[in-house]
């Protein structure tokens, strides 16, 4: 393994735009959810006429889904809030005929009522259920893979100390919010997934990319904890944490 200083520089300078995690190959692993989100979404997109992907990131997963769908929907749109990801999503999705609109997370969606028969979102930071129900056509479906409360808690607490995971991202909480907005929840499946980090550079890149894990993270501010993390991995092997995920499917009656 390279020196701590070399790994520090590598982690601090690796690109973190978009939601392509290919950089982590050989550096970190995460167990995949059993339901296969991209496959499920491709199946539904293949029978839809108008699809919206909310908070699409760099559009990587949405592009994969559309490429795998048996039939391309006549209308495909997406939203994204972060300017670097917005530019990346437009580059990735324009060749597939997808319109990508800028929209703040949790804000009103820039589309007319009942515009889509399928709305999807993978790992949204927040879900505006009233807007989701509004843009869904009657009989339309919603499919999402959400980040659950306490995700990567072991990693958060290594840097921050004890963390209260709260209740806002519990599966049952979001299901109740969806139902309050007039949607009928048809599937709700939680799962804890083992994640391993093989060097401190992988930890740094993850924390720069998934910024809510350790809010305010920087190499300078958390240097002492990074030294401790590097020593722990060298002595004990990969650092293990668990991501929390749940599948939530619903429809508008």
Automatic annotation (TrEMBL):
It comes from the Bacteria. One of its GO terms (molecular function) is methyltransferase activity. The keyword Transferase applies. Keywords: Methyltransferase, Transferase. One of its GO terms (biological process) is methylation. InterPro entries: 23S_rRNA_MeTrnsfrase_RlmA (IPR052939), Methyltransf_11 (IPR013216), SAM-dependent_MTases_sf (IPR029063). Coiled coil: none annotated. Residues 52-142 form the Methyltransferase type domain. Its EC number is 2.1.1.-. Pfam families: Methyltransf_11 (PF08241). This is Class I SAM-dependent methyltransferase. It comes from Catellatospora aurea. The lineage of its organism: Bacteria, Bacillati, Actinomycetota, Actinomycetes, Micromonosporales.
């Amino acid at each position: 393994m390279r020196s701590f200083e070399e790994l520090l520089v590598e982690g601090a300078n690796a690109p973190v735009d978009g939601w392509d995690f290919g950089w982590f190959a050989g550096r970190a692993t995460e167990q995949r959810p059993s339901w296969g989100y991209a496959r499920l979404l491709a199946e539904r997109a293949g029978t839809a006429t108008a699809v919206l992907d909310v908070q699409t990131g760099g559009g990587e997963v949405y592009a994969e889904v559309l490429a795998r769908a048996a039939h391309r929907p006549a209308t495909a749109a997406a939203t994204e809030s972060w300017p670097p990801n917005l530019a990346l999503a437009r580059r990735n999705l324009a060749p597939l005929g997808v319109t990508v609109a800028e929209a703040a997370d949790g804000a009103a969606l820039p589309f007319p009522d009942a515009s889509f028969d399928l709305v999807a979102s993978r790992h949204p930071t927040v879900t505006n259920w009233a807007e989701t129900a509004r843009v869904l056509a009657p009989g339309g479906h919603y499919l999402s893979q959400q980040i659950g409360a306490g995700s990567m808690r072991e990693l958060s607490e290594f840097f921050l100390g004890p963390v209260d995971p709260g209740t806002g991202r519990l599966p049952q909480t979001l299901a109740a919010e969806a139902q309050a907005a007039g949607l009928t929840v048809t599937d709700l499946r939680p799962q804890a997934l083992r994640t391993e980090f093989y060097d401190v550079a992988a930890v740094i890149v993850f924390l720069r990319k998934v910024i809510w894990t350790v809010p305010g993270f920087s190499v300078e501010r958390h240097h002492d904890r990074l030294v401790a993390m590097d020593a722990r991995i060298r002595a004990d092997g990969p650092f293990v944490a668990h991501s929390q995920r749940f599948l939530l499917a619903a429809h508008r009656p």
